[in-house]
């Protein structure tokens, strides 16, 4: 998404929250924020909500992804992860939904209104899937029919308006420079087949 991406220094902490259940409600939490490498094996995550930073225990390959995606000299990167609190202020990460060294970071709230978000950057496109159906490139919502092929893919097809079909595959995706998403996506629209990535909304 070259036209829409900004340097990681522009990743802001406003407008984003810690989307989680409290420890009393359940151990699994989804947390978004800036992951900072403070040297050695030390990692801290500053949640988008602005609450106190969490010490991170890496159980999902964060270190390898950080090394792969971070821009030269970059010490903090936006992440969207799930994990469990294993101590006071300590988060053990088990799932990486997104990691982006460029982009809108905490200000990107599309996932708050969508079950799935799929996007690509060559050419630039975005599809959102929610209760109202599919919205392509921020146009109107149109109803869809969906099909699940267990372990293979999710498929969504529009029922009226512009013909579009979206496939979401359970494979890690690096199709967008400087970013990792936990799913791969393919959009078929206007006779074109466009590759991209996808992530689950919250």
TrEMBL record:
Keywords of this entry: Signal
Leader sequence residues: 1-19
Top-level taxon of origin: Bacteria
Name of the protein in question: Lipoprotein
